[in-house]
Amino acid sequence: MKLYTKQGDTGKTSIIGGRVDKDHLRVEAYGTIDELNSFIGKAVSELEQEKFKDLIDDLTAIQHELFDGGGDLANVMKERHYKLTEEPITVLENRIDALSEEAPPLKRFILPGGAPAAATLHIARTVARRAERETVSLMKEIEDVSPVVQKYLNRLSDYLFAAARVVNYRLSIQDVEYIRSGDVFK
Predict the structure, then answer these.
(1) Which of 126, 138, 144, 153 is deepest in the core (most CB within 10 A)?
(2) Is the pTM here over 0.85, yes or no?
(3) Domains by residue range for the chain, with CATH
């Protein structure tokens, strides 16, 4: 099997049930989800298996869920069944709560960084926010888009923030507070 088809050479790409321009809002949104998935894979590769098994398990499940969400955004079939459901959102909320309890209390904004895996998770968080913004733009333009994807991305960015903080905490790396920040978390 060849990896190239040459069908995209004219600036169009195939989606589930049709073809669109490669710069279509739909392609931008699911393409950013693909980028996010890649950064999460990079973070997993930077995590020590024994110390971070729970996070690796979370992140691996999230990678599958991102494929589901991206597929949901790429689907323009008249009859469609969305793969991403509300259940993973509840799982993320529970994990955010648990991770937030593990890390030290937060009073101010922090600078992204710390351990390599934490820094990668912060990058993933910002890409998740961009994917969410692009999904919102798509939802404004095209009404027939699953709202679960946007909600999932919103919660995922919070999870990635909490996970980055826990990585630093478990490695005894202190988060660096933004020095001009007032107390914003109470």
Answers:
(1) 153
(2) yes
(3) 15-170 (1.20.1200.10)
